[in-house]
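debug: dumping io for the single-chain case to check the tokenizer round-trip. Nothing else runs in this session.
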Amino acid sequence: MSKVYFASARTERWDYKDSLPGKLEKLLREFDLTRYFEKDEWVAVKTHFGSEGAHRIVRPVFLRKIVDGIKSVGAKPFVTDTVRIKGLDYLEVANQNGINHLSCGAPVVLADGLYGRDNILIPAGEILGEVAVSSVIHDVPAMVLCTHAKGHIQAGYGGAIKNLAMGGVSSKHRIHGWEKGRGAMHTIGEGILNWFSDKCTFCYQCEMVCPLGAIDFVETPNGGEILQWDKEECWRCGRCVRVCQSEALLLPGDDVRFMKSLAEAAASVLSTFSDKKVIYINFLTEIIPECDCMPAADVPVIQDQGILIADDPVAIEQATLDILLKAKPLPQSAADDKEIREGDDILFKINQKPYHIQIEEAEKLGLGSRKYSLVNL
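debug: decoded output
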């Protein structure tokens, strides 16, 4: 049975040691990083850089504490993420959100290069076949996976498994394109965007939200407009469908296969590491309805709960969900809009996705166990 260490977000004494950054320092000491990292070993601190407008990411102050903890055992950390928009733009977004060498105390690099095509094909099971794992994550000997626990438009819940799967896999492969990248997880094969012109209000939100400019509206000879979609450029992230308030867009998918594919991709990423060379830190803070890749961040639907750390991805996910399921929905939030009550599964009620399948499947694939013991600090 894996141990999962937990520090509550509640601060009841006016003392730095009782602050959340102070508690993270204690978590790292109690967890004993010397059991995982060696002197001069390179360690990736994998996080999510956020988006322009999506600011509720794992805050730089916490990344700095993790970097300092890694340095204290003599290892050499760097902060990284895979490309989600054009590489140079993504580095600018990271800097705007406070993630840079000065704030984090370590270099900030793109795990799959400026163009998001530096990756290596790894076997990924019967659903995905192969996936393009980013070259940096593939090659680095050790990693700390820093995850902002939250909702997700397709995964329902975005935690460590989703961070491994979509964050460790590139958007596309140099030769095979999105079909070997995270786009294969998003759509499970079909990947054809459908536009229903009779429903479209021509608000252009889909065009504006696309990170790659794969959607454009062009004039027709009769003076109207038609949506033009670049299927080769698109990596099937689904943002366009999410922001379409008139339901004029559809990107077919299969929720169950999607959840299972997340576990498959996570297993592929972890297969590039030796045993006990990855640790997981879940931040149960600013728990918003959707992913940090969106161009805005809604208010939290659940109050800050705290920080978890473990060396078992399945155990930390189960512990995270157990904590979130006991939480109360916050007023004046998406939970309030949907009239969610205390005792309801808040993230499921909001996103209507069977998110638990990804954790169950990860356990079946041998990534860890849902049985754990919680160590409160």
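debug: round-trip ok. The CA atoms of residues 202 and 225 lie 9 Å apart.
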